[in-house]
Every structure is written in structure tokens, then in C-alpha cells.
Amino acid sequence: MNTSSANHILQSVFGYDNFRPQQQVIVDHLIAGSDALVLMPTGGGKSLCYQIPAIVRNGVGIVVSPLIALMKDQVDALHQNGVRAAFLNSTLSPDEVREVEDALHRGELDLLYVAPERLMMPRTLDLIEHIPVSLFAIDEAHCVSQWGHDFRPEYVQLSVLHERFPQIPRIALTATADNATRREIIERLALTEARQFINGFDRPNIRYRISDNSSNTREQLLRFIRNEHPGDAGIVYCLSRKRVDNVAKWLTSKGLTALPYHAGLPAQVRQQNQERFLREDEVIIVATIAFGMGIDKPDVRFVAHLNLPKSLEAYYQETGRAGRDNQPANAWMVYGLQDVILLKQMQASSDAPEEIKRIERHKLDTMLGLCELTTCRRQALLRYFGDELEKPCGNCDTCLEPPETWDATATAQKALSCVHRTGQRFGVGYLVDVLLGKENERILRFGHNKASTYGIGSELNQSEWRDLYRQLIARGLLAVDLEGHGGLHLTEESRPVLRGEQPLHLRKFSRKTKAKSRERKASRFTDPKKNDLWQALRNRRQQLADEQGVPAYMIFHDATLAEMLENQPETLTQLSNISGVGKRKLADYGETFLDVLNDYRNPGKNTQSDTEEETLQLFRLGMDAEAIAAQRGLKAITIYNHLAKGIERDEVPLSEVVPLPQHQLEAIRFAIEQYEGGKRLKPVFDALEGEFSYEVLRCVRSDMTR
Ligand code: ADP
Ligand code: ZN
Fold it and tell me: Which domains are seen in the chain, by residue range?
């Protein structure tokens, strides 16, 4: 009985056909009133695990979350689905707090998001003692771990919940717990009795790709974006602020919407750029690692690294921001010799205690190992995080195009002995010159034109030698000096290779294998007509999102639009079968998306203008919008949209559609003018304190653009 009501809510409210396997078990477990600890990768679908039990069970579900900035978005998204939800945190005014509290007392909420410090206030605890509570969900539960980088002292106090409300089920959720953190969560949150639901960390929809920056990095990036991600949202990570600014400017000059984000920008600019990234469809953020914490945008289609991250943890966390909606996404990285040397030097010259430095060195080496790998990258990544993947994944570059290797033993010996013969103090540029037998002033001054390795390297060209040195450093056969001049010296590991005791197989240089194009189709769909429809659906989504001031993905996810495009629903019932279309969204947006699909199917017939024409005719016959809606079986919002078009084309006068006194019309016009001509209607709506409906505002706006 409970299971069936959970399924019913999944379908009617959230518009999904089936639970994912783990979700089903967790939801049942919670509905039955038991505690749970859930480890699920990002994008695994954690939210439904508590949202649905909270709706099914009696009382309000209390969700503890450390990310205040996200609460409003989460609540907005629930409202879009018609779920009764609110949040309590420090951004609310005392009046707003009272409103939420009143709603709680009246039993009008299914979900309440609170910051931990707010929940622990005596006033809040007293409040929830007097109302029915369906469950406590503790999101980002790894924040209780003192060893983690997200530690929140307030989280430790959450064990109080168990003491004060032993009968209320609790669910703790996280995406980032290793065994030690998991034990800490259980202990500190008093979850010893809780059933554990442990899911792997794999993100199968992300395609990992790493290549060396053999050509111009920026050009490589641009080609990647143009070929594989036209019109997509993405994040580009760079190491320095200066690089961020340069790359953002350059991409902009190439016609892309690329915005910089780093700690050196004024807070207001950062805020603005982040906002646009969240709310618009086609924005690329170019950022230092300062960007990303608390970013919950599900449709980030790519994460590009122009520099090497410091560790696999950082790499996995940053790339993990792609494809939270489980749609295909790319984690794309280029790196080069310069990165390796720079990071090694930064580490060597840091003031950290030797013990920390050793750990950091190890982490960087593991990261380099991943880059130079010739086997499945996902297997290696997951193994590092304690997860086994039995077979190669088939969705990383090394799986898709297994790199060729060659026996580099003899060539590597030349490179290593050149280091040795020149005294173990020169950098790669100099060493390569010696190998190639260049006659420059420095070589002559040091007399290395007489060294035994002078001019013995004609089998490779300059960039191939650099490539080889990078691989030798990455494999730990050479180390970078401490003084910061980039001088190389031999390590213990190089001895067996130099002595010929250990063969060395390396990746072939990218130049030789690059002839094969690894570029996918130029745009999302090969059929240009489909591309047009895709764009039209996205434009409609953006328009609705702008009007309400919410991010586009809250209207519908990419996956939902893609399914519309695929299945071409013609009726509301057919549309309701599309994943992600619940009852509320069907009622609010169904008609307007069907219009877009109809236009595409019958461009000649122009059904859009037919249906508009019918509305206008009825209107001229003296019926008002509500009456036309009733007669035609359409929603009033659709009729108003038709009328707004009519106003825009000067076919009906505003005064007849919106019979308001002159001073009120003036007030609306004034507000629209104030906010970018009403591009977004939400601020206009708010400025007028909700006195006029969106339909009325839209009509006045149409009249102004006549
Ligand atoms: P997490 O919090 O684990 O990162 P979310 O709860 O944000 O993941 O869910 C990730 C995505 O998967 C969202 O787009 C969500 O709507 C979608 N999703 C979750 N459960 C299902 C399901 N049963 N069917 C289809 N889509 C789902
Ligand atoms: Zn693979």
C-alpha cells in the first residue's frame, strides 16, 4: 500500500516512470519508519529518497543542508512540481520566518529545508516538538567529519535529533564518503542501527578524456567546444586568475558566452556570472578552482581542464560537476610538460612540513599516473576510491581508442644519460638542444658539444623529445630540482632503465596517432531540422524560466526536452508520459510545449497562428479570456498568450484585453521599463507586489513592443 503510493507520487508529481533500483528500497525502508545511511554518487538521485517518503508519511520532512545558497533553488524546484515546501535560514526576514512557522503549525508543508545552526536553535526545536514530523534527512552528511575538507561543527550537534526524537526516522546522505568518513558519520550521528545503502562512485555518463597539449591549448579547447558542445553549458578550469581572464576573453572573441570567475573579481561580478551560468542555457564559466562548491546545475555538459589538478580527489570532484542529470557529458583535459614542472616546483618549494609534502607528492604522482595511463581510466579512478570495476568501461578515451605503445627503452636511455652527462642541473629545453646537436651559445660555453650525448637524438624531433621527458617525469624516472629553474635529476627508479634491466613501454606521441579524428558529430543532432526543434524547445524553456526568474532546467531538464523531441507527443496525455512531466508541469507548460512541437510538425499549416486566430475571433465576438479558455478547453494562460500576440500585431487593443484604469497601466509600464523592458517578468511581478498576474504583465509588455 505504501509502495504503491510512493510509485504514484513518483509518477504523478515528479513525472518519472520507475524508481532507480536503490531508490525503491530506500524509499520503502524510510516509509516503514527506519533509519538509513545512503552513499550515492552525484546524480544518483538522492533527493527523491527522502522527498517521496516525506510526502507519503504524515507530517513535514525536515531536510538539514549546509548549503544555504541552494535551499531556495531546491524549494523552487519542488514548487515547480507542485510540492508544498519552504526553507528556514538566515536570508529570511523575521516576517518571512513567521510565515513559514505559521504554515508549519497549520500542517501545510511536506518539506522544510533548514540550515543546521537554525535547526539547533531552541526555538526551532521547540517548534518541531509540537508538529508532526515525517522524517529528518541529513544531506551532505560527510560534513560531520572532522578530517574532511567540508567540516561543519554544527553538524556534530545533530545527534541531538536522535535523543529528542527517537521515534522519527532519519536518513543521512552523502556522495563523498570513504570508509573512515562513513564510520565517523555513523558514530557522530548515532546511526549504528541504520541500514546502510552503499552505491558505487561510478559516473558512467561521464566520458573521461585526457590528452597532452601538443598544439595550442586554447585552440584545442575551442575546437572541442565548437565540435562537441555548441550551445552547451560547461566549466573550464584554469590554474591562475590571469589565465582565466585571458581564456574567457578569447572565447568571447570567438562568439561564445564565456564568463570569468575567480577570487580576484569583485564579489558582485562573481555573483552575477554565477547567476547567469545557473539561469541561462549556453553559458561557459572559465574559473579557478574557487568555482564549483555548492553549484547544483544538473545540465553542465562538459568540464574542461586546461591545467593539471593537484590530485585525483580534486580531479574527480571537479569533473563530477558535469552531467548530474545522467545525460552524456564530457570530462576533457589537456596537460603538458609545463604543468608537470610547475606543480612539482610549487610543491618542492612550499613551506609545508615534510610529512604533508610527501603526501602531496604522492597525490600528484597518482594524478600523473592517470594521465599517462594506457588502460581504462575509469577503472583506475574507481580503484583509487576503493571501488572495483570489473571490465574496462568503454566510455573513456583509452577504451574508445586504445593508445598505441612503443618500446621506448633505448630512446629513454639516451634522454636519461643526457641528464647524467650534463651534470643533472639543466631543464628540458637545454637537454633537447643537446640531444639534437644544436650549436647555441650556452652549449658551447658549457662545452656540452663535446658530451657523449651531443647530437645522438635525431630519431625524434624537438616536441617528441619534450613529450618523452614529460612521460619520464610523470613516471618518476626524473625529478625536478628544488631551486625552481626546472633542472632535472635522475631518481633511483631510473637506474634499472639506464642499466637496461627494465624495458620501458610508453604511449606513442600524440602527433603520430592524431591523424585519427576523435571528434564526434558537430552538433547534438545530425538532422538539421531536429536541431531547429531542439533550439525551439530550449528557447521556449528559457522564456518561461526568464519570466519566473528560475533556472531553465527547473522548467524541464535536458533529458525531458530530448524525449519530447524523440517521441513527438501530440496530446497532453502523450506529453504526460514523458519522463519529467508531472501533473503540475503538464498543467503549467503542456500547452505551450505542444505548440512548439506542432509548429515543427506542420510548418506549412501554421497551426500556431490557426489556434491564435481562433482565440482572437472569439475575443472579437465579445468573450473574455476566461470564457474562451472554458469554451476551447485550454488554460487561461494559453489564451492570454494568444491575446498578447494579437496585441503585439496590433490586432486587438490592450485596453480591451486588460481593462485596467490608466494609473494602473502606467504603474505596470513604469515597472517594466525599470527591469530591462520586462525581459524577465519576475522582478516586475515582485516590484508590483503580485498585484497583477503574469498574464496581464505579458499583455502590457506586448503592447509596449508593438
Ligand atoms: P543527487 O542529489 O544524488 O546528485 P539528484 O537527486 O539531484 O541527485 O538527481 C539527479 C538527477 O536524476 C535529477 O535530474 C533527477 O531529476 C533525476 N532522477 C532521480 N531519480 C530519477 C528516476 N527515478 N527517474 C528518472 N530520473 C530521476
Ligand atoms: Zn574506460
Answer: 3-198 (3.40.50.300), 206-335+373-400 (3.40.50.300), 405-510 (1.10.10.10), 528-705 (1.10.150.80)
